[in-house]
Amino acid sequence: MKSHNCPLCSSSKTQLYHADDTRQYRACTVCEFVFVPSVFHLSEIDEKSRYDQHNNDPNDANYRRFLSQVAQPLFERLPKGVKGLDFGCGPGPTLSIMLEEQGYSVDLFDKFYAQNDVVFNCKYDFITATEVLEHLSQPAFELNRLCRMLNPGGMLGIMTEMLSDNVNFANWYYKNDPSHIGFFSENSLHWLANSWHAEIEILSNRVVLITKT
Q: Is residue 26 included in any domain, yes or no?
């Protein structure tokens, strides 16, 4: 079934990975991406309703500390003044403010809260996608588009909790969010970087930098 094809690499070589009372999860044997088939996805109305519950406050020190996991490595690697995009900035953009405070210029995009399609015609020195990849219904389309938007040497900063052999998937809190429909592992992110002929740095179990070469 086409709906069972991998949404990251398009392979038909997928198999049932897990099932619970509400939905199924399939694993790709080519790129090792684990995904929820589209028949189990939330409607856009239900998806936005869930995001509306998020309370992302730029003045929240704990939230800033959380985002600093990806912000600090970018500060250390990117020259001041370069231009970036916060993709999937959410209802309370905060990472962009943190970056602007350090001298970077940042555009915003979010399909619900900052619908600004002009950004897709722009080029950027960096793009951030924090707690975004697990929500993408078309990860190949979205991520390949982001890669094309990066200048040579540009950097994609990713935050998403990675699936590993240490995770008990049946009890994993991260998969219980109904808006989480795609789960990356180190291997699936390496597959993505290799498909772009890009360099990848795995900084932790939830922070990854991919540099376009």
A: no
Note whether 157 and 127 are within 8 A (CB): yes
pLDDT in tens, the chain (213 residues): 567 999 999 999 999 999 999 999 999 999 999 999 999 999 999 999 999 887 788 999 999 999 999 999 999 999 999 999 999 999 999 999 999 999 999 999 999 999 999 999 999 999 999 999 999 999 999 999 999 999 999 999 999 999 999 999 999 999 999 999 999 999 999 999 999 999 999 999 999 999 999
Containing H/E element for 199?
Answer: strand 199-202
Q: Is 19 within a domain?
A: no
Is the pTM above the cut of 0.85? yes
In a domain, 25, yes or no: no
131 domain-assigned: yes
Among 88, 84, 97, 112, which residue's Cα sits nearest to residue 58? 97
Q: Torsion over CA of 183, 188, 194 and 195, rounded to 10 degrees? A: -60
8 A C-beta contact, residue 200 and residue 208: yes
Number of domains comprising the chain: 1
Q: In a 10 Å sphere around its CB, with 0-12 CB exposed, 13-18 middle and 19+ buried, how is residue 179 labelled?
A: middle
